[in-house]
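Re: that chain you flagged

S.,

Sorry for the slow reply, it's been a week of failed gels. I finally had a moment to sit down with the sequence you sent. For the record, here it is as I used it:
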Amino acid sequence: MCKHGPRGMCDYCMPLEPYDSKYLSEKKIKHLSFHSYLRKINAATNKPEAGSSFMPPLSEPFYRVRSDCPSGHPQWPEGICTKCQPSAISLQPQEFRMVDHVEFATPDLINSLLDFWRKSGAQRLGFLYGTYEEYTEVPLGVKAVVQAIYEPPQVGEVDGVTLHEWQNEQEVDEVAHLCGLQKVGVIFTDLLDAGRGDGTVICKRHIDSYYLSSLEIAFASRLQAQNPKATKWSRTGRFGSDFVTCVLSGDDTGAIAVSSYQATISAVEMTRANITEPSAEPSVMLVQSEEDTDEGSKTRYIPEVFFRRINEYGASVQENAKPSFPVDFLLVTLTHGFPTESSPVFTNSSFPIENREVIGESQELRHIAQKLMSEDPNKAIQGVSDFHLLCFLHGLSTFNKVSKQSTGNCLSLQYSD
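Prediction finished late last night. Pasting the structure tokens below so you have them in one place:
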């Protein structure tokens, strides 16, 4: 149907934009990828053909009282004006997601985390280390490829996990960096045996209850706030976070399944501003109140929060979020899976996992000897291809890091007398 020459372009042969709504609907893509969303708003903000100056199209929400108000009045709580007070918040479902897919390099990563629950009946949490790569199933998509799970000091209980101070976090991050990895997310279990003796578990999370509780959303928001995404397209130099949250829980068939989520940009800022707090009802988030001090001043400024819902007559109505509102406005869903052809960075996972003394598993020097004592040198080299082993070696203080060498993703160590 094109009537132009080979160097021309018309509406019939023009490529689709990555944010084309019809294409996304045909492919059943619920959320735009971050880069598709960025291209969409940049096309509306900047017009290169007009010769105008560049304006960063991204702007993170700010729900706190600004301390640099130019009006000259005393700072909050002594004074406030329309220039420094935050505007009312209107919650809406987020149309984009920073990461589209979570890919686990091998099923052994999930099984090793489940082993703790199977042996103790208590829940377990671990931080995900991996890389961010292109995800071709979504236009301009990004996926988090998980290569290792590190379990920090914690106390597992039947209904949750209590985290302790993670003293060697920087050392673990350094080992991951030397292996070409970074912290990409967190994963935790929420499992309860069905008692049938066939390995099935109870389905807690479904459409009639919740998918991510208010407490878990607050936890994910804090972690995303600690791991912001740097970008030149934002006015503040950062926008959102690529940090993901995964849950191991029972599905509607009683099997153990993985679910992946991210807290929205608004949820992270509401957590920074101390506007929301978790409630005893997991599907509901509470809005904090402006508490008075003994001197009569306010301890925090809480702007008005609104959300829209479909009422019993099928009409879309706006309601005040105080004192509570559904958590559905604060999260986005990600897809997950395993690669068709597995090629993990670490090929050996037999070394004991850290911080599991409560079930009789500990990391000792004799375990290193067992892995390295082999007649075949190739097997000894493969035995060191274990993230937990490398972290243990790094923390022994008997090894020093030598100069960098072009040895791929290897960690070079030298024994110190």
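What I noticed first: Confidence is low (pLDDT under 50) at residues 292-297, 403-411, 413-417.

Talk soon,
D.
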